[in-house]
Design brief:
The complex is a heterodimer of chains A (305) and B (281).
Chain A: H1 4-43, H2 64-71, H3 73-104, H4 111-119, H5 126-136, H6 143-151, H7 168-193, H8 197-205, H9 210-221, H10 223-238, H11 242-247, H12 259-269, H13 273-304
Chain B: H1 2-35, H2 40-46, H3 62-70, H4 73-104, H5 110-120, H6 129-138, H7 146-149, H8 156-168, H9 172-179, H10 184-195, H11 197-213, H12 216-221, H13 230-238, H14 245-265, H15 267-279
Classes of the chains: A mainly alpha (305), B mainly alpha (281).
């Protein structure tokens, strides 16, 4: 046994270094994440502006921002677009990611080349993706319109994708899936490789075909992965900003406006920090709810085990 | 019979994968090939057909030269490299340090700090940008390098990834060193860090992709060209009319190629890092 004084001192020393090691991160997190979050909450009850005006001091206005927000048709459209985006992108992107992962989850030649290719859009910067696709979407002579024209024997022509109130959102959805699906594919691939092979072997002996295997083994085994992929895609969909700002700035006629685009316009362009903060809080509550739902599903899964 | 069946299936499989590969590569090849076409008229003519991905005609690097000569590209490139590398490097140091304290040291308040960090993962950057803008405006940081670096050094998710890795390392490693009288910082530097290359690469790659392509924040905090990073610079160039597509594609290629090359070299690490970001579920 060592003497207790030495041990006590050692403990104290350990405690001190633990705090020293934590300090830089804790200070930075407080100043640049926790404080802004508290400020967002506080500002959302005031008419704070970005550049304080001495003649118009900031006032506490209670719930007025939230009441205005509830009646703000621009915000309704933004939320509707976010939800539309989620409803279309999440099932499409998740199932495409699963298909891609199953295609490349086999030991055949060149499979790594395909994996690399499917993943390469993920490392392409979103602003660049948006710009390149805008060229492909060009109304008169863009590649996509020419292709559609050719494939439909001339029936489809001249869709002005990004300037059309109906087609602008689908256009942004397509390029977003193109850019993001490789990421989910890799997560599914990791999930697929975690499934014990014995499960397939014993079901093969029972004479089950590939489709039965997929429904009875693959899908249930991937349940947690699917929840994770669906939830993270949903949250990403709510954060939608970059591609919209580069391509349409929310237009035409608000057809592609999203919560973050609206937040940016209110807070940064119109300098209405208080109002933008109330948008941020509503946005945060939505993201929080989605995360809580995810946690609920995962908990249920664990208690069954 | 079965053998030929199998090979037909295999051919179909490769065919399907190749069609998909074309879908994913097409826009990237289109961009790169167009950037090499010196004649702007040819780019416009080729845009509506598969000639868009064929390098023919007047091929060269004139567009690339134009981008360097006609605008401050080297400055934007320098800005992006500096901001990304400093933010990623400082992030690795700061986030791994607190994760080490949480995973390997005993101190009062450890569980509280840990649960606060985990709770903070949920707060999206987008929901705090406006008050953050207010803070950095108050500090007089607008239009600088540090405004694009310092707020994004500490990252709860990176801390969490480090924490998960450190907690799995055998406890006997640092106990032995502790008995020999090594200080926590020595244990961290000489034992933990050398064992942590996979997680360091993982966090560096994930953060590197995010910082290199970040758009919303630099759009708000940069004014002139001096501190503007590449994504904001190309967006500004892209929104000017008339559009010079050759130059735009050369610019876009030069944003994409550095990451694409890094990706090709460190593929295994990229794939691992993405896979481990999903494991947290």
């Amino acid at each position: 046994m060592k003497n207790p004084v030495g041990l006590g001192q050692l403990r104290k020393k350990e405690e001190r270094s633990a705090w020293l090691f934590s300090m830089p991160a804790l200070i930075l997190l407080f100043v640049f994440l926790i404080l802004p979050f508290i400020l967002a909450l506080g500002f959302s009850f005031t008419d704070q502006r970005l550049i304080p005006n001495l003649n118009l001091p900031t006032r506490f206005i209670g719930l007025r921002n939230y009441i205005r927000l509830a009646a703000d048709s621009n915000f309704h459209i933004a939320l509707r677009n976010n939800f539309l985006f989620v409803i279309i992108v999440v099932p499409l992107q998740t199932s495409l990611a699963l298909c891609l992962a199953m295609l490349i989850n086999r030991k055949i030649q060149f499979v790594n080349v395909y994996r690399t290719v499917f993943f390469s859009p993920v490392v392409t910067t979103m602003v660049v993706v948006a710009i390149v696709w805008s060229f492909l979407y060009h109304p008169d002579s863009g590649f996509i319109n020419k292709m559609l024209n050719f494939l439909s024997f001339g029936k489809i022509s001249g869709i002005s994708w990004l300037n059309d109130t109906f087609w602008a959102l689908p256009a942004i959805i397509i390029l977003s899936i193109w850019q993001g699906v490789g990421f989910q594919m890799i997560i599914y691939l990791a999930g697929l490789q975690d499934i014990p092979l014995e499960l397939y072997e014993s079901s093969m002996m029972d004479g089950a075909g590939p489709w039965k295997n997929f429904v009875h083994i693959t899908l249930p085994q991937l349940k947690n992965t699917t929840i994770f992929v669906a939830v993270s895609t949903t949250i990403l969909a709510f954060k939608l900003f970059t591609q919209v700002w580069v391509l349409t700035k929310g237009g035409p006629q608000n057809a592609t406006i999203t919560s973050i685009v609206y937040l940016y316009k209110q807070g940064f362009k119109q300098l209405k920090v208080g109002y933008a903060a109330s948008i941020a809080i509503v946005f945060f509550i939505i993201v929080l709810l989605i995360s809580l739902i995810q946690r609920h599903f995962l908990k249920e899964e664990r208690s069954v085990d | 019979m079965t053998k030929s069946n199998l090979s037909i299936r295999r051919i179909l499989l490769y065919f399907l994968m190749s069609i998909l590969a074309l879908f994913f590569l097409f826009p990237i090849i289109f961009m790169f090939v167009s950037s090499l076409k010196n004649n702007e008229m040819q780019i416009i003519r080729d845009m509506s057909s598969l000639r868009g991905i064929l390098p023919y005609g007047d091929i060269g690097v004139q567009n690339y030269i134009d981008v360097f000569v006609h605008m401050n590209f080297s400055r934007f490139l320098f800005n992006s490299v500096l901001i990304t590398s400093l933010a990623v490097f400082c992030g690795l140091v700061v986030n791994s340090m607190i994760a080490f304290a949480l995973a390997r040291l005993r101190f009062k308040g450890r569980t509280i700090v840990l649960s606060v960090i985990v709770a903070l993962i949920i707060i999206p950057n987008e929901s705090v940008v406006i008050p953050l803008l207010f803070i950095v405006n108050f500090l007089g940081w607008i239009d600088s390098y540090h405004v694009q670096i310092i707020p994004y050094i500490a990252d709860p998710f990176s801390i969490f990834l480090f924490y998960q890795f450190f907690i799995k390392l055998p406890k006997s490693l640092d106990e032995a060193a502790m008995i020999d009288g090594a200080s926590p910082s020595k244990i961290f530097r000489t034992i933990i860090v050398p064992l942590s290359k996979p997680i360091i690469a993982t966090v560096a790659i994930l953060q590197g992709i995010i910082r290199w392509g970040d758009f919303l924040w630099p759009l708000m905090v940069t004014r002139g060209e001096s501190f503007r990073p590449l994504p904001v610079a190309i967006q500004q160039f892209f929104s000017q009319d008339p559009k010079v597509w050759g130059d735009i594609f050369a610019f876009a290629s030069m944003i994409t190629i550095p990451l694409l090359v890094l990706f090709l070299f460190f593929q295994k690490w990229f794939v691992q890092s993405v896979a481990s970001s999903g494991i947290k579920s």
